[in-house]
Structures are given as C-alpha cells and as structure tokens.
Design a protein that fits this description.
The chain has 182 residues and is an all-alpha fold. The chain has helices spanning 2-29, 39-87, 92-124, 131-181. Helix 2 (39-87) runs antiparallel to helix 3 (92-124), helix 2 runs parallel beside helix 4 and helix 3 (92-124) packs antiparallel against helix 4 (131-181).
Amino acid sequence: MKKLISGGIFVFAFAVVALFSSSFASAQTTTTTPTTPTPAQIARCTLAQTRLTTLFTKVEASQKAQTAIFNGVSTKLDTYVDSAKANGFDTTALVKAQTDTKTKLTTYTEKATAYTAALTAAKAINCQTAEATFAPSIVTVRAALLATRLASLDAKKTYKESVVPALKAYAAWLTEQAKVTE
C-alpha cells in the first residue's frame, strides 16, 4: 500500500510540475522586449562608455612608455653592434639580436595600433542606440588587447633570450681584450 501511495504522489507531483512549467513557458514566449532601454541598461551603457574613455587614456600612456623602452633598447643595441664591429668582435649574435628586436618592435607597434584603433571605434559607438554593434566591438577590443599583450611578452622574451646573452658575450670579450692589452 505504501508503494502505491508514494507512486501516486509522484504522478501527482509530476502532473503539477508539467502543468506549471507549460504555463510558465507560454508566459515567457509571449513576453516582448521593450524597445526603449531600461534605466539599468542605460546605467550599464554609461558605465561601459566611461570605462572605455578611461581605458583609452591609460592605454595611450602605457603604449607610449613601452614603445619608448623598446626603441631605447633597439637604439642602444645599434650602438653596441657598431662598437663591436669597430673593435673586431664577431657580431653574428648581436646582429641576430638586433634583427629580432626590430622585428618584435614592429610587431608590437602594429598590434598596439590595432588595439588603440579598436578602442577608438568602440568608444565612438553609442551603446544605447546601437546595441547590436557595441557588443561585437568590445569582443574586438578584447582580442586586440590579447594580441598586444602577446606581442609585448614576445618582445620581452626576445630581449631576455637573445639580446642579454649577446651583450654579455660582448662584455666578456671586451674584458678579455682589456686584459690582453695590459
């Protein structure tokens, strides 16, 4: 008898859930989306645009500083290559490091420019009137940010793995040459 009662309760519960879920689903499908943005949507939109403006200012300053550092390394490396050639040092490693550095600097500059352009484009979109284009522009900004970060990390990796060892080898050679001439 207990099995029959618990089975009957299960059937009754299942019927109730099925009844309410079908009426809930039909109520949801008949709901229309409002054509005017809600105050919460307007607040989110305003916040997003404010953050984009703030981010753009920070990104510009950061990219200028990073580009200046990369250019400084490249310029000093050019000086060291010229000095090494003049002193008779085998500049194979230095020239390779110089070429790699310039390539990575160019790649970083391109990626940073694309990121800045994506930010500018996203900043120009009014998310209240053009919701359909605002969200994809944010996705584009995030992708450009990732590409810029990877290019920056690649340039730093090249510096650590190529430039530093080449300069250390040149410094060691100069130290040996100074001892020989004494």
